[in-house]
Amino acid sequence: MRHEELGIGVVQFDRTFTVANAPSAVGRSGALIYVSNGASGSPCLAVSDGTVWKQVAITATTITT
């Protein structure tokens, strides 16, 4: 799971997963992935607890431009 550092403190994931094709979370404690349909069908981040992926909800708009 690679990411690209954009030089301004922003990380852009180079791969998008779905609930169906997300890799195993086992042994990946602290890993972070982008899931296009993870929060009741909406995009979210997920973090591994070493066993399963835990949803990190994306709730409010931060930047509109």
Account of the protein in words:
- The protein has 65 residues and is mostly beta strands.
- The chain has one domain.
- Helices cover 0% and strands 38% of the residues.
- It has strands spanning 3-5, 11-13, 32-39, 42-48, 53-56.
- The protein has a three-stranded antiparallel beta sheet with strand order 3-4-5, with no helix packed on it. Strands 1-2 form a two-stranded antiparallel sheet.
- A hairpin with a 5-residue loop joins strand 1 and strand 2.
- The termini are far apart.
- The model has no long low-confidence stretch (mean pLDDT 83).
Which features does this protein show?
single chain, 65 residues, mainly beta, 3-stranded antiparallel beta sheet, two-stranded antiparallel ribbon, 5 strands
Largest β-sheet summary: 3 strands, antiparallel
Regions with little confidence, pLDDT below 50 for 5+ residues: none
* Structural class by secondary-structure content: mainly beta
Helix content: under 10%
- N- and C-termini, Cα separation: 28 Å
Order of helices and strands: EEEEE
Q: Radius of gyration, Cα only, in angstroms?
A: 12 Å
The overall pLDDT, averaged over residues, is 83
The number of E-state strands comes to 5
What share of residues are in beta strands?
35-45%
Number of distinct helices: 0
> How many independent structural domains?
1
Shape: globular
- The largest sheet has its strands arranged as 3-4-5
Please provide a brief summary of the model.
By secondary structure, the chain is mainly beta. It has one domain (3-56). The chain has no helices and five strands.
